[in-house]
Amino acid sequence: xxxxxxxxxxxxxxxxxxxxxxxxxxxxxxxxxxxxxxxxxxxxxxxxxxxxxxxxxxxxxxxxxxxxxxxxxxxxxxxxxxxxxxxxxxxxxxxxxxxxxxxxxxxxxxxxxxxxxxxxxxxxxxxxxxxxxxxxxxxxxxxxxxxxxxxxxxxxxxxxxxxxxxxxxxxxxxxxxxxxxxxxxxxxxxxxxxxxxxxxxxxxxxxxxxxxxxxxxxxxxxxxxxxxxxxxxxxxxxxxxxxxxxxxxxxxxxxxxxxxxxxxxxxxxxxxxxxxxxxxxxxxxxxxxxxxxxxxxxxxxxxxxxxxxxxxxxxxxxxxxxxxxxxxxxxxxxxxxxxxxxxxxxxxxxxxxxxxxxxxxxxxxxxxxxxxxxxxxxxxxxxxxxxxxxxxxxxxxxxxxxxxxxxxxxxxxxxxxxxxxxxxxxxxxxxxxxxxxxxxxxxxxxxxxxxxxxxxxxxxxxxxxxxxxxxxxxx
Length: 475
What we know:
Glycosyltransferase; 4 domains; three-stranded antiparallel beta sheet; two-stranded antiparallel sheet; 20 helices; 65% helix; 2% strand; globular
Protein backbone atom coordinates (compact mmCIF):
# COMPACT_ATOMS: atom_id res chain seq x y z
CA UNK A 1 0.00 0.00 0.00
CA UNK A 2 2.80 2.41 0.93
CA UNK A 3 4.53 1.80 -2.42
CA UNK A 4 1.27 2.56 -4.28
CA UNK A 5 0.90 5.84 -2.36
CA UNK A 6 4.47 6.82 -3.19
CA UNK A 7 3.86 5.98 -6.87
CA UNK A 8 0.71 8.09 -6.95
CA UNK A 9 2.48 10.99 -5.27
CA UNK A 10 5.35 10.83 -7.75
CA UNK A 11 2.87 10.56 -10.62
CA UNK A 12 1.03 13.68 -9.46
CA UNK A 13 4.28 15.60 -9.15
CA UNK A 14 5.24 14.58 -12.67
CA UNK A 15 1.88 15.72 -14.04
CA UNK A 16 2.12 19.15 -12.46
CA UNK A 17 5.80 19.83 -13.16
CA UNK A 18 6.30 22.68 -15.63
CA UNK A 19 9.33 23.56 -17.71
CA UNK A 20 10.68 27.09 -18.14
CA UNK A 21 9.49 27.07 -21.76
CA UNK A 22 5.95 26.16 -20.73
CA UNK A 23 5.95 28.82 -18.03
CA UNK A 24 6.96 31.41 -20.59
CA UNK A 25 4.34 30.28 -23.11
CA UNK A 26 1.48 30.17 -20.63
CA UNK A 27 2.38 33.57 -19.20
CA UNK A 28 2.56 35.00 -22.71
CA UNK A 29 -0.97 33.77 -23.36
CA UNK A 30 -2.24 35.11 -20.03
CA UNK A 31 -0.58 38.49 -20.62
CA UNK A 32 -2.10 38.79 -24.08
CA UNK A 33 -5.62 38.19 -22.81
CA UNK A 34 -5.08 40.50 -19.82
CA UNK A 35 -3.98 43.29 -22.19
CA UNK A 36 -7.08 42.82 -24.28
CA UNK A 37 -9.22 43.31 -21.17
CA UNK A 38 -7.47 46.74 -20.99
CA UNK A 39 -7.12 46.02 -17.26
CA UNK A 40 -3.85 47.48 -15.97
CA UNK A 41 -4.14 45.70 -12.61
CA UNK A 42 -4.60 42.37 -14.34
CA UNK A 43 -1.68 43.06 -16.66
CA UNK A 44 0.47 43.97 -13.66
CA UNK A 45 -0.53 40.73 -11.91
CA UNK A 46 0.60 38.65 -14.88
CA UNK A 47 3.80 40.64 -15.35
CA UNK A 48 4.69 40.24 -11.67
CA UNK A 49 4.29 36.49 -11.88
CA UNK A 50 6.52 36.52 -14.96
CA UNK A 51 9.26 38.24 -12.93
CA UNK A 52 8.75 35.88 -10.00
CA UNK A 53 9.05 32.78 -12.19
CA UNK A 54 12.01 33.95 -14.23
CA UNK A 55 14.98 31.63 -13.98
CA UNK A 56 14.65 28.47 -11.94
CA UNK A 57 11.04 27.26 -11.76
CA UNK A 58 9.86 27.07 -8.11
CA UNK A 59 7.90 24.14 -6.74
CA UNK A 60 4.64 26.12 -6.56
CA UNK A 61 4.87 27.41 -10.16
CA UNK A 62 1.93 25.32 -11.41
CA UNK A 63 -0.34 26.52 -8.62
CA UNK A 64 0.56 30.17 -9.23
CA UNK A 65 0.16 29.80 -13.00
CA UNK A 66 -3.29 28.31 -12.52
CA UNK A 67 -4.32 31.20 -10.29
CA UNK A 68 -3.36 33.83 -12.87
CA UNK A 69 -4.92 31.81 -15.68
CA UNK A 70 -8.20 31.73 -13.75
CA UNK A 71 -7.98 35.49 -13.23
CA UNK A 72 -7.76 36.21 -16.98
CA UNK A 73 -10.33 33.56 -17.95
CA UNK A 74 -8.18 30.66 -19.15
CA UNK A 75 -8.96 27.13 -17.94
CA UNK A 76 -6.37 26.49 -15.19
CA UNK A 77 -3.60 24.11 -16.12
CA UNK A 78 -4.43 23.75 -19.78
CA UNK A 79 -4.52 25.40 -23.15
CA UNK A 80 -8.25 26.04 -23.36
CA UNK A 81 -11.13 28.35 -22.45
CA UNK A 82 -14.42 26.75 -21.42
CA UNK A 83 -12.99 23.48 -22.71
CA UNK A 84 -12.28 24.80 -26.19
CA UNK A 85 -8.63 24.61 -27.35
CA UNK A 86 -6.25 27.55 -27.42
CA UNK A 87 -3.27 27.83 -29.71
CA UNK A 88 -0.24 26.06 -28.28
CA UNK A 89 2.66 26.70 -30.61
CA UNK A 90 5.91 24.78 -30.81
CA UNK A 91 9.46 26.07 -31.02
CA UNK A 92 9.52 25.26 -34.74
CA UNK A 93 6.36 27.30 -35.35
CA UNK A 94 7.80 30.25 -33.47
CA UNK A 95 11.09 30.01 -35.38
CA UNK A 96 9.38 29.84 -38.77
CA UNK A 97 6.80 32.56 -38.09
CA UNK A 98 8.83 35.65 -39.16
CA UNK A 99 9.93 33.99 -42.40
CA UNK A 100 6.46 32.75 -43.33
CA UNK A 101 4.81 36.04 -42.37
CA UNK A 102 7.20 37.92 -44.68
CA UNK A 103 6.53 35.43 -47.48
CA UNK A 104 2.77 35.80 -47.03
CA UNK A 105 3.00 39.60 -47.11
CA UNK A 106 5.07 39.46 -50.32
CA UNK A 107 2.62 37.02 -51.91
CA UNK A 108 -0.31 39.28 -51.01
CA UNK A 109 1.52 42.24 -52.50
CA UNK A 110 1.86 40.31 -55.77
CA UNK A 111 -1.94 40.01 -56.16
CA UNK A 112 -1.33 36.41 -57.26
CA UNK A 113 -3.69 33.94 -55.59
CA UNK A 114 -1.48 30.98 -56.56
CA UNK A 115 1.52 32.52 -54.79
CA UNK A 116 -0.57 33.17 -51.68
CA UNK A 117 -1.85 29.59 -51.79
CA UNK A 118 1.72 28.23 -51.99
CA UNK A 119 2.68 30.13 -48.82
CA UNK A 120 -0.45 29.19 -46.90
CA UNK A 121 0.03 25.51 -47.76
CA UNK A 122 3.49 25.70 -46.23
CA UNK A 123 2.03 27.46 -43.18
CA UNK A 124 -0.52 24.65 -42.80
CA UNK A 125 2.29 22.08 -42.81
CA UNK A 126 4.15 23.95 -40.08
CA UNK A 127 1.04 24.52 -37.96
CA UNK A 128 -0.24 20.95 -38.26
CA UNK A 129 -3.02 20.28 -35.77
CA UNK A 130 -2.71 23.85 -34.45
CA UNK A 131 -3.95 25.35 -37.73
CA UNK A 132 -7.19 27.22 -37.16
CA UNK A 133 -6.87 27.11 -33.36
CA UNK A 134 -7.35 30.60 -31.84
CA UNK A 135 -4.96 32.19 -29.38
CA UNK A 136 -7.84 33.68 -27.41
CA UNK A 137 -11.52 33.05 -26.81
CA UNK A 138 -14.41 34.72 -25.02
CA UNK A 139 -16.88 33.13 -22.64
CA UNK A 140 -20.19 32.28 -24.29
CA UNK A 141 -23.73 33.22 -23.26
CA UNK A 142 -26.52 30.65 -23.01
CA UNK A 143 -29.92 32.06 -23.96
CA UNK A 144 -33.44 31.16 -25.00
CA UNK A 145 -34.67 31.98 -28.50
CA UNK A 146 -36.11 35.47 -28.93
CA UNK A 147 -39.92 35.60 -28.75
CA UNK A 148 -40.44 39.36 -29.17
CA UNK A 149 -42.66 40.69 -31.93
CA UNK A 150 -41.28 43.33 -34.29
CA UNK A 151 -43.26 46.00 -32.43
CA UNK A 152 -41.91 44.90 -29.03
CA UNK A 153 -38.33 44.67 -30.33
CA UNK A 154 -38.63 48.15 -31.82
CA UNK A 155 -39.91 49.51 -28.51
CA UNK A 156 -37.02 47.84 -26.67
CA UNK A 157 -34.54 49.43 -29.07
CA UNK A 158 -36.00 52.91 -28.63
CA UNK A 159 -36.14 52.54 -24.84
CA UNK A 160 -32.53 51.34 -24.74
CA UNK A 161 -31.44 54.25 -26.95
CA UNK A 162 -33.06 56.70 -24.51
CA UNK A 163 -30.78 55.43 -21.72
CA UNK A 164 -27.85 56.81 -23.74
CA UNK A 165 -29.42 60.28 -23.67
CA UNK A 166 -26.37 62.54 -23.26
CA UNK A 167 -24.28 60.68 -25.82
CA UNK A 168 -27.18 60.47 -28.27
CA UNK A 169 -27.72 64.24 -27.99
CA UNK A 170 -24.03 64.90 -28.59
CA UNK A 171 -23.89 62.63 -31.61
CA UNK A 172 -27.13 64.10 -32.98
CA UNK A 173 -25.39 67.47 -32.98
CA UNK A 174 -22.55 66.03 -35.06
CA UNK A 175 -20.07 66.20 -32.18
CA UNK A 176 -17.69 63.23 -31.76
CA UNK A 177 -17.34 61.43 -28.44
CA UNK A 178 -13.82 61.49 -26.93
CA UNK A 179 -11.32 58.79 -27.86
CA UNK A 180 -13.69 56.71 -29.98
CA UNK A 181 -12.77 54.74 -33.09
CA UNK A 182 -14.89 55.62 -36.10
CA UNK A 183 -16.14 52.03 -36.30
CA UNK A 184 -18.29 52.90 -33.26
CA UNK A 185 -20.13 55.59 -35.22
CA UNK A 186 -20.52 53.20 -38.14
CA UNK A 187 -22.16 50.66 -35.83
CA UNK A 188 -24.65 53.22 -34.50
CA UNK A 189 -25.35 54.45 -38.04
CA UNK A 190 -26.02 50.88 -39.15
CA UNK A 191 -28.38 50.55 -36.20
CA UNK A 192 -30.34 53.59 -37.34
CA UNK A 193 -30.56 52.21 -40.87
CA UNK A 194 -31.64 48.75 -39.71
CA UNK A 195 -34.32 49.88 -37.26
CA UNK A 196 -35.87 52.72 -39.26
CA UNK A 197 -38.32 50.62 -41.33
CA UNK A 198 -39.57 48.95 -38.14
CA UNK A 199 -39.89 52.32 -36.39
CA UNK A 200 -41.79 53.69 -39.37
CA UNK A 201 -44.32 50.87 -39.01
CA UNK A 202 -44.65 50.88 -35.23
CA UNK A 203 -43.24 54.13 -33.80
CA UNK A 204 -43.45 56.82 -36.52
CA UNK A 205 -43.24 59.56 -33.89
CA UNK A 206 -39.65 58.45 -33.18
CA UNK A 207 -38.44 58.99 -36.77
CA UNK A 208 -37.46 62.61 -36.19
CA UNK A 209 -35.05 61.70 -33.38
CA UNK A 210 -33.67 58.72 -35.29
CA UNK A 211 -33.06 60.81 -38.40
CA UNK A 212 -31.36 63.57 -36.39
CA UNK A 213 -29.01 60.99 -34.91
CA UNK A 214 -28.37 59.56 -38.38
CA UNK A 215 -27.55 63.02 -39.74
CA UNK A 216 -25.22 63.79 -36.82
CA UNK A 217 -23.33 60.52 -37.24
CA UNK A 218 -22.88 61.12 -40.96
CA UNK A 219 -21.62 64.64 -40.25
CA UNK A 220 -18.91 63.21 -37.99
CA UNK A 221 -17.85 60.64 -40.57
CA UNK A 222 -17.80 63.10 -43.47
CA UNK A 223 -15.81 65.61 -41.42
CA UNK A 224 -13.12 63.05 -40.57
CA UNK A 225 -12.94 61.16 -43.86
CA UNK A 226 -9.56 61.82 -45.47
CA UNK A 227 -9.23 63.29 -48.99
CA UNK A 228 -8.15 59.92 -50.42
CA UNK A 229 -11.29 58.28 -49.03
CA UNK A 230 -10.05 56.29 -46.02
CA UNK A 231 -11.11 56.88 -42.41
CA UNK A 232 -8.49 57.67 -39.73
CA UNK A 233 -7.78 56.09 -36.35
CA UNK A 234 -7.75 58.01 -33.03
CA UNK A 235 -4.50 58.59 -31.15
CA UNK A 236 -5.07 56.31 -28.16
CA UNK A 237 -1.64 56.57 -26.56
CA UNK A 238 -2.06 56.55 -22.79
CA UNK A 239 -5.73 55.56 -23.13
CA UNK A 240 -5.67 52.02 -24.51
CA UNK A 241 -2.85 49.59 -23.76
CA UNK A 242 -2.96 47.58 -26.96
CA UNK A 243 -3.61 50.35 -29.48
CA UNK A 244 -1.46 52.89 -27.64
CA UNK A 245 1.57 50.61 -27.87
CA UNK A 246 0.86 49.94 -31.56
CA UNK A 247 0.71 53.67 -32.35
CA UNK A 248 3.91 54.34 -30.43
CA UNK A 249 5.75 51.69 -32.44
CA UNK A 250 4.47 53.10 -35.73
CA UNK A 251 5.42 56.66 -34.78
CA UNK A 252 8.89 55.56 -33.69
CA UNK A 253 9.30 53.87 -37.08
CA UNK A 254 8.18 57.03 -38.88
CA UNK A 255 5.34 55.08 -40.52
CA UNK A 256 2.40 57.30 -39.54
CA UNK A 257 1.52 60.94 -38.88
CA UNK A 258 -0.72 62.23 -36.06
CA UNK A 259 -2.71 65.45 -36.41
CA UNK A 260 -5.38 66.86 -34.10
CA UNK A 261 -5.67 63.57 -32.22
CA UNK A 262 -5.97 61.36 -35.32
CA UNK A 263 -3.63 59.15 -37.31
CA UNK A 264 -4.08 60.72 -40.72
CA UNK A 265 -1.80 58.20 -42.43
CA UNK A 266 -3.27 54.92 -43.63
CA UNK A 267 -2.01 52.02 -41.51
CA UNK A 268 0.98 50.51 -43.36
CA UNK A 269 -0.07 47.06 -42.10
CA UNK A 270 -3.50 47.28 -43.75
CA UNK A 271 -5.51 48.11 -40.64
CA UNK A 272 -7.21 51.14 -42.20
CA UNK A 273 -9.33 48.67 -44.15
CA UNK A 274 -11.22 48.08 -40.88
CA UNK A 275 -12.66 51.54 -40.21
CA UNK A 276 -12.82 52.43 -43.89
CA UNK A 277 -14.72 49.24 -44.64
CA UNK A 278 -17.36 49.61 -41.95
CA UNK A 279 -17.74 53.39 -42.26
CA UNK A 280 -17.93 53.30 -46.05
CA UNK A 281 -20.50 50.49 -46.05
CA UNK A 282 -22.60 52.23 -43.37
CA UNK A 283 -22.66 55.43 -45.46
CA UNK A 284 -23.71 53.50 -48.56
CA UNK A 285 -26.57 51.78 -46.73
CA UNK A 286 -27.75 55.01 -45.09
CA UNK A 287 -27.48 56.89 -48.38
CA UNK A 288 -29.54 54.24 -50.14
CA UNK A 289 -32.27 54.21 -47.46
CA UNK A 290 -32.56 58.01 -47.31
CA UNK A 291 -31.91 58.68 -50.99
CA UNK A 292 -28.98 60.93 -50.08
CA UNK A 293 -26.43 61.23 -52.89
CA UNK A 294 -23.82 63.01 -50.74
CA UNK A 295 -23.70 60.13 -48.29
CA UNK A 296 -23.56 57.63 -51.13
CA UNK A 297 -20.64 59.43 -52.78
CA UNK A 298 -18.71 59.45 -49.48
CA UNK A 299 -19.19 55.68 -49.28
CA UNK A 300 -18.01 55.29 -52.85
CA UNK A 301 -14.87 57.35 -52.13
CA UNK A 302 -14.09 54.82 -49.40
CA UNK A 303 -14.71 51.96 -51.86
CA UNK A 304 -12.47 53.58 -54.47
CA UNK A 305 -9.71 53.81 -51.86
CA UNK A 306 -10.21 50.13 -50.99
CA UNK A 307 -9.87 49.20 -54.65
CA UNK A 308 -6.35 50.64 -54.70
CA UNK A 309 -5.17 48.71 -51.63
CA UNK A 310 -3.17 45.52 -51.93
CA UNK A 311 -4.28 42.62 -49.77
CA UNK A 312 -2.30 42.23 -46.56
CA UNK A 313 -1.22 39.28 -44.42
CA UNK A 314 -4.14 39.81 -41.99
CA UNK A 315 -7.06 37.97 -43.56
CA UNK A 316 -9.81 39.79 -41.65
CA UNK A 317 -8.55 43.21 -42.79
CA UNK A 318 -9.05 42.09 -46.38
CA UNK A 319 -12.57 40.92 -45.52
CA UNK A 320 -13.56 44.47 -44.53
CA UNK A 321 -12.73 45.66 -48.03
CA UNK A 322 -14.69 42.76 -49.53
CA UNK A 323 -17.78 43.87 -47.59
CA UNK A 324 -17.34 47.50 -48.66
CA UNK A 325 -16.79 46.67 -52.33
CA UNK A 326 -19.74 44.27 -52.38
CA UNK A 327 -21.95 47.00 -50.93
CA UNK A 328 -20.61 49.52 -53.47
CA UNK A 329 -21.53 47.14 -56.29
CA UNK A 330 -25.04 46.68 -54.90
CA UNK A 331 -25.42 50.46 -54.67
CA UNK A 332 -24.17 51.24 -58.17
CA UNK A 333 -24.10 48.13 -60.36
CA UNK A 334 -20.56 49.17 -61.34
CA UNK A 335 -18.72 45.94 -62.17
CA UNK A 336 -15.34 47.31 -60.99
CA UNK A 337 -16.47 46.94 -57.39
CA UNK A 338 -17.64 43.34 -57.78
CA UNK A 339 -14.47 42.42 -59.69
CA UNK A 340 -12.40 43.95 -56.90
CA UNK A 341 -14.34 42.11 -54.20
CA UNK A 342 -13.92 38.74 -55.92
CA UNK A 343 -10.20 39.33 -56.42
CA UNK A 344 -9.71 40.21 -52.74
CA UNK A 345 -11.63 37.06 -51.81
CA UNK A 346 -9.37 34.89 -53.96
CA UNK A 347 -6.11 36.53 -52.89
CA UNK A 348 -6.76 37.82 -49.38
CA UNK A 349 -9.24 35.45 -47.72
CA UNK A 350 -9.87 32.05 -49.36
CA UNK A 351 -6.25 30.78 -49.29
CA UNK A 352 -6.06 31.20 -45.52
CA UNK A 353 -8.81 28.79 -44.49
CA UNK A 354 -7.72 25.83 -42.36
CA UNK A 355 -9.28 22.34 -42.57
CA UNK A 356 -11.41 23.06 -39.46
CA UNK A 357 -13.19 25.94 -41.24
CA UNK A 358 -11.44 28.73 -39.38
CA UNK A 359 -8.51 30.79 -40.64
CA UNK A 360 -5.17 29.21 -40.13
CA UNK A 361 -3.23 31.70 -38.01
CA UNK A 362 -4.04 31.89 -34.32
CA UNK A 363 -5.10 35.55 -34.54
CA UNK A 364 -7.60 35.21 -37.38
CA UNK A 365 -8.85 31.94 -35.89
CA UNK A 366 -10.35 33.96 -33.05
CA UNK A 367 -14.13 34.03 -33.20
CA UNK A 368 -14.42 37.81 -33.40
CA UNK A 369 -12.22 37.85 -36.54
CA UNK A 370 -13.81 34.68 -37.90
CA UNK A 371 -17.14 36.51 -37.73
CA UNK A 372 -15.68 39.48 -39.65
CA UNK A 373 -14.48 37.16 -42.40
CA UNK A 374 -17.88 35.47 -42.47
CA UNK A 375 -19.50 38.88 -42.89
CA UNK A 376 -17.33 39.54 -45.93
CA UNK A 377 -18.20 36.14 -47.40
CA UNK A 378 -21.90 36.72 -46.83
CA UNK A 379 -21.78 40.21 -48.33
CA UNK A 380 -19.97 38.90 -51.40
CA UNK A 381 -22.49 36.06 -51.83
CA UNK A 382 -25.38 38.51 -51.63
CA UNK A 383 -23.75 40.76 -54.24
CA UNK A 384 -22.97 38.03 -56.77
CA UNK A 385 -25.66 37.79 -59.47
CA UNK A 386 -27.45 34.43 -59.65
CA UNK A 387 -26.05 33.69 -63.10
CA UNK A 388 -22.46 33.77 -61.82
CA UNK A 389 -22.78 30.20 -60.60
CA UNK A 390 -19.09 29.27 -60.60
CA UNK A 391 -18.12 32.21 -58.42
CA UNK A 392 -21.04 31.61 -56.07
CA UNK A 393 -19.96 27.96 -55.73
CA UNK A 394 -16.39 29.12 -55.08
CA UNK A 395 -17.55 31.40 -52.25
CA UNK A 396 -19.91 28.74 -50.88
CA UNK A 397 -17.05 26.25 -50.65
CA UNK A 398 -15.35 28.59 -48.16
CA UNK A 399 -18.44 29.94 -46.41
CA UNK A 400 -20.14 26.68 -45.47
CA UNK A 401 -17.21 25.20 -43.48
CA UNK A 402 -16.76 28.59 -41.80
CA UNK A 403 -20.42 28.63 -40.74
CA UNK A 404 -20.11 25.07 -39.45
CA UNK A 405 -17.07 25.99 -37.34
CA UNK A 406 -18.92 28.91 -35.76
CA UNK A 407 -22.03 26.88 -34.98
CA UNK A 408 -19.92 24.14 -33.38
CA UNK A 409 -18.43 26.71 -31.00
CA UNK A 410 -21.90 28.04 -30.19
CA UNK A 411 -23.05 24.50 -29.40
CA UNK A 412 -20.14 24.02 -27.00
CA UNK A 413 -19.89 27.46 -25.39
CA UNK A 414 -23.03 29.45 -26.12
CA UNK A 415 -23.04 32.74 -28.04
CA UNK A 416 -19.41 33.90 -28.04
CA UNK A 417 -19.84 36.93 -30.32
CA UNK A 418 -22.58 39.39 -31.25
CA UNK A 419 -23.11 38.75 -34.95
CA UNK A 420 -26.86 38.92 -35.51
CA UNK A 421 -26.92 40.87 -38.82
CA UNK A 422 -24.25 38.55 -40.18
CA UNK A 423 -26.11 35.41 -39.12
CA UNK A 424 -29.38 36.78 -40.51
CA UNK A 425 -27.72 37.32 -43.88
CA UNK A 426 -26.20 33.84 -43.86
CA UNK A 427 -29.51 32.27 -42.86
CA UNK A 428 -31.05 33.95 -45.89
CA UNK A 429 -28.36 32.43 -48.07
CA UNK A 430 -28.76 28.97 -46.54
CA UNK A 431 -32.45 28.67 -45.60
CA UNK A 432 -32.25 24.89 -45.19
CA UNK A 433 -29.64 25.08 -42.41
CA UNK A 434 -31.74 24.47 -39.28
CA UNK A 435 -28.80 24.94 -36.91
CA UNK A 436 -28.16 28.36 -38.43
CA UNK A 437 -31.81 29.30 -38.09
CA UNK A 438 -31.77 28.32 -34.42
CA UNK A 439 -28.53 30.25 -33.88
CA UNK A 440 -30.21 33.41 -35.23
CA UNK A 441 -33.11 33.03 -32.81
CA UNK A 442 -30.86 32.26 -29.82
CA UNK A 443 -28.45 35.09 -30.62
CA UNK A 444 -31.39 37.49 -30.82
CA UNK A 445 -32.48 36.17 -27.43
CA UNK A 446 -29.01 36.68 -25.94
CA UNK A 447 -28.91 40.27 -27.22
CA UNK A 448 -32.35 41.01 -25.77
CA UNK A 449 -31.18 39.51 -22.47
CA UNK A 450 -28.20 41.88 -22.40
CA UNK A 451 -30.51 44.86 -22.87
CA UNK A 452 -33.42 44.01 -20.60
CA UNK A 453 -34.07 41.87 -17.53
CA UNK A 454 -37.82 42.38 -17.83
CA UNK A 455 -37.75 45.51 -15.68
CA UNK A 456 -34.70 47.62 -16.44
CA UNK A 457 -33.57 48.48 -19.94
CA UNK A 458 -30.09 49.46 -21.12
CA UNK A 459 -28.05 49.47 -24.31
CA UNK A 460 -26.19 46.36 -23.26
CA UNK A 461 -25.28 45.28 -26.78
CA UNK A 462 -23.85 47.04 -29.80
CA UNK A 463 -26.48 49.37 -31.26
CA UNK A 464 -26.65 47.62 -34.64
CA UNK A 465 -27.02 44.24 -32.93
CA UNK A 466 -30.09 45.31 -30.98
CA UNK A 467 -31.52 47.02 -34.07
CA UNK A 468 -31.10 43.76 -35.97
CA UNK A 469 -33.45 42.03 -33.52
CA UNK A 470 -36.31 44.28 -34.67
CA UNK A 471 -35.19 44.23 -38.31
CA UNK A 472 -35.20 40.42 -38.34
CA UNK A 473 -38.79 40.06 -37.17
CA UNK A 474 -41.57 39.68 -39.71
CA UNK A 475 -43.87 42.74 -39.77
